[in-house]
Design a protein that fits this description.
about 260 residues; alpha/beta; Rossmann fold; four-stranded antiparallel sheet; about 20% strand; globular; ATP-binding; ABC_transporter-like_ATP-bd; translocase
């Protein structure tokens, strides 16, 4: 398990846009954090900074014993091998089988070309890939092309690929945004059951407040790149959400699944 500590994280783009403004929080091993906020609030930028895909303008990110701003390219690759990422758009290779896509999750542990092809991958890795597919209930689709699977099935393949990395911390960016409600609920149930059984730290961005309440241990709300709310789910109240979604709050209450609040 890995701890995460973010201190004074600021990201300003070249055009002057401030995506993150002095963001600070810590995540303990095994904790499930949901990031909430309107579009443009900084949620995805925060995940990209944690993963090292964006370079912060200032501030520190410490993951375990790694301080991201001090890592060279080799050390950054080593750090990323401990992190799993589940994307909204799956990022599978559609022309390859589900099994082949999951096998690619081992590439973080080795750059050997053997890992690119099922026929040449070590037997222990092929076995591990099938175990990961079994964990997401897709062994019977192992040899099927990824682009012939449903959206929910593709997201489950993506989760299996993440498991193949054997991550200690998982970052999840809008995992159900492109799925219908039933498929989205199934994906969240599956993802969180894996997180709980392996006691993984997870940071997940969501728009669906009902899902945030159901799955998150802790809710961190962002607005204009700043933390506006940091609370456990038991203390989350509807009125707290006005800080995150105004001025669009009045027209989005039904969409967000919360009651209209008089001012």
């Amino acid at each position: 398990m890995l701890s995460l500590k973010i201190s004074g994280l600021t990201k300003v783009y070249l055009n002057g846009t401030t995506a993150l403004d002095q963001v600070s929080f810590s995540a303990q091993p095994g904790e499930g954090i949901v990031l909430l906020g309107a579009n443009g609030s900084g949620k995805s930028t925060l995940l990209r900074c944690i993963l090292g895909l964006e370079t912060a303008t200032s501030g520190d990110i410490c993951i375990g014993n790694w301080q991201i701003s001090q890592l060279n390219s080799q050390q950054l690759r080593q750090m990323r091998s401990q992190l799993g990422m589940v994307f909204q758009k799956f990022h599978l290779v559609g022309s390859l089988s589900a099994f082949h896509n999951v096998l690619h999750g081992a590439l973080g542990r080795s750059t050997s070309p053997r890992y690119w092809f099922p026929a040449t991958a070590p037997e222990i890795e092929r076995k591990r890939a099938m175990e990961c597919l079994d964990r997401v209930n897709l062994t019977h689709f192992a040899q099927q092309r990824a682009d012939t699977l449903s959206g929910g099935q593709q997201q489950r393949v993506a989760i299996a690929r993440t498991l193949m990395q054997n991550p200690k911390l998982i970052l999840v960016d809008e995992p159900v945004a492109s799925l219908d409600p039933q498929a989205g609920k199934e994906v969240m149930d599956l993802l969180w059951s894996i997180v709980r059984e392996q006691r993984l730290t997870v940071i997940c961005t969501l728009h669906q407040l009902a899902l945030a309440r159901e799955y998150g241990d802790r809710i961190i709300g962002l607005r204009d790149g700043k933390i506006q709310m940091d609370t456990t789910v038991n203390y989350l109240q509807d009125r707290d959400l006005t800080m995150l979604y105004e001025p669009e709050f009045g027209v989005r209450c039904s969409e967000l699944g919360i009651r209209e609040i008089s001012t």
